[in-house]
Every structure is written in C-alpha cells, then in structure tokens.
Amino acid sequence: MIETGEILQTMRMIQEENFDIRTITLGINLLDCSDSDADRCADRVYEKICRRAEKLVHTGEEIEREFGIPIVNKRISVTPVSLICQADPRPIAKALDKAAAEVGVNFLGGYSALMHKGATLADERLLASIPEVLSETSLLCSSVNVASTRTGINMNAVREMGEIIKETAEKTSAQDGLGCAKLVVFANAVEDNPFMAGAFCGVGEPECAINVGVSGPGVVKVALESVRGEPFDVIAETIKKTAFKITRVGQLVAREASQRLNIPFGIVDLSLAPTPARGDSVARILEEMGLETVGAPGTTAALALLNDAVKKGGVMASNHVGGLSGAFIPVSEDIGMIEAAAKGALTLEKLEAMTCVCSVGLDMIAVPGDTSAAAISGIIADEAAIGIVNNKTTAVRLIPAVGKKAGDLVEFGGLLGYAPVMPVNAVSNERFIARGGRIPAPLHSLRN
Questions:
Q1: What CATH number belongs to 1-438?
Q2: Is 277 buried (19+), middle (13-18) or exposed (0-12) by CB count in 10 A?
Q3: Could you report the per-residue pLDDT of 177-206, keeping only the tens digit for each?
Q4: Tens-digit pLDDT profile for residues 342-364
Q5: Domain residues of the chain, as ranges?
Q6: How far is CA 229 from CA 155, 217, 225, 303, in A?
Q7: Given CA atoms 172, 177, 181, 185 in this order, what sign does their dihedral have?
Q8: DSSP-derived secondary structure letter, 31
Q9: At what angle do helices 56-67 and 232-261 cross, to 10 degrees?
Q10: Is pTM, for the whole model, over 0.70?
C-alpha cells in the first residue's frame, strides 16, 4: 500500500517538478495471427489489436482522473512482424497503423526484425519495406536488432540499416526526416521495453501484458538542489530515495491498469525520460552535480552515478523492474542536451562515450543530410560493439536532415522536440562496412 505521506509527496512532484508516467504500453502477442497470406494475416492482426486494446486509452484516462497522475502516452507493442508474416509485410503495416488509430493510442511498436545472427527472407522483406512504410503510416514504429552479446554483430544487417536510414530520411524529407524518429537499431534489444520507437512484444512474453514507463528528471533535479556541495555518496543516496518514490507511483499505475483491464502486470521501466520542456531534463541533473554544462569532462562519470542510483532505488520499490531502466539521453527531447549540442559542448563522440554507462544509446540525433550510409552504419557498429562487450542494451536513432548542414536546426514537434544538426566525422569507412559478415561474440558470451 502507498501511505498518506507518499501520496502528498507524489502530488508535489506532479504539481511542481514535472513528474508524470511517460507511458502505459500494452504488449500484445500476435503469433496466433500468423498466416502465409498477407491480407488474411493483416485482418487477424487488426481484429486482435482492436479487441485487446479496446479499453486501454479509456482506462489510462480514468486512472489519470482518479489519481491525479498524468499519463502522457498510451501505447501498444506487438510481436515483431517478421515473425508472423512470411509474405509482403506492407498490408500488416497498414493494419497496425489503422488499429492504432482505431483504439486511440499515441504509437504502436513492433514493425521489427531480430537479425542479430542472421536474416530470414521475412526479415529481408521487412527491412526493404521500412522506408516506404514509415513514410506512409503515422503511428507505426520500427526497430531492428542487429547484435547481441551471445551472437556478435551482424555486419550485413548493419550495412543494410545505414542504407535504410538514408532512404527513410529521403522519403520523409518534407517532414525533416521524421520517419527516422520512428526507427531504431538495437544491440541486445529487450522484450518488454515500453518506450518507443523500440518497443516490441518478445516471444518470451505472455499473451498480453501491461508495461509502464516512468519519468521524472525534474524530480531528481529538485532533490539534488537540496544537497548542493555534498559529496557524491550523498548525491547517490538522494537519487536512490527519489527513484524509489517515482517507481512506487509507476507500480501503482501499472497494478491499477492491470486489474481494470484484466491483463497481467509486466514491468515498470525506470528510465528517466526527458522532454523538451524546461525543468524536465536529464542534462540538468548532471549539471546540478557540478558540471558547467553537459559534455564537460566528468559528464560520463556523473551519468554513471545517476544510472546506477536510479536502478538501486527502483528495484527496492518494485519486484517487476524491467525494460531498459536507467536514463535516456535523447538530444532532441532534452532541453539541456539541445543547448549543449548547439554551443558545441556536447559532441557525437562524447555522446558515444556516455552511452557506455546509460540505458540506451545515440538517441534522436540529427546529422547532416549528406552523411553517407556507410558513416551511419559505422556509428551503428560502434554502438553495437559497446552493447555486446558491456552486455547491455544500446541503440542508434539517427535522423539525416536532408538539405541541412551541421549547425542548422531541425523541428520535430511535441515530445520529439527539436535538434541542432551535429557534425559527423567525414573520414571514410566505406571499405570497413563493405566487408559484411559477422563480428564474433566476445569471449565472455561463453557463460555455460
């Protein structure tokens, strides 16, 4: 049970510190919709999503009203489409987008393929369709897993994804490459992630599950203001206690949604998810620790402390912690990151170093439109290497801004925010990417 004191603290966090539940995500297993005929498969997918998610948005809004807790997004994740369709996947993509609009969710994730060791014909068909699909749908998100600690890095898939990201940017250039904001490339993708664009319902998941993603960078920032000048031990303890409170609210919302929808409670994802709003920034937390601006020497150490303390506090508050759980550092969605990148204090190379210790990876970064497909593939390969060697999830969500150069601004709107176009190292890596094949798994993958 949540006690009166916790309720009062929660109300203060909501009213004064930008606290919210970032998402309730309903995972739906679509394996039983599989069919060799794409149109029949699409009909089954549409019917099942509309049936299972019929009350999701209404229930989320009901919980918001009753508890006074903002729930920013209601979302759906589904079984990776390449696993349920061996034919042309485009009819399924249209059915997914139509179903998402019908039930009223903000996004639907799962137009995905798992290619960390190799590719099926279904995987290849899905990859080839991504640029067209993301240019013709509104709510659908796509992800591809190209590496894992157990299998290494599929460099053929890495090469293809560089080309697909470029093509997607060109097909959605009228929207500043917005299609790429709905496309993420993973290493060690998790099966219960509630956050877009990388959410999908893994094959180890139940028929349906309710997963909740919390937020609260503003809450952590305010908590650290009360311990200015104190040593890092005190900072870590303060973050732990704050993460505990945030996670308790997330668990409350998840259990309420689970009971009302009669769907099992899956996980609470502890990831601190920022927004472009002032007072809701992960960068500002790091600066509160004593950095003049994020990107300064010490930034990676500060982020490591934050990530670890959030996890330690969260696991004490819930037995169902999962997803990614830590701290997101999306450039376009965090006002502190935006400002640091705009003045050159935060570079792509520094962001890569930071991803060694945070939840995800290079997220929502605009790069010049003339960045080559090979350069994008190289960035994906580097991030995947960080993931497999450190046995953690990493990802890349780059947005080539067609017609724009380093220093220009790209506007996405809403939670996606805006971003300065960041320069990319122009030294060629064409021959490296052209090799293909597979980079073997690291030695520590042999754990049995």
A1: 3.20.70.20
A2: middle
A3: 688 999 999 999 999 999 988 999 999 999
A4: 889 999 999 999 999 886 789 89
A5: 1-438
A6: 47, 20, 9, 18
A7: positive
A8: G
A9: 120
A10: yes
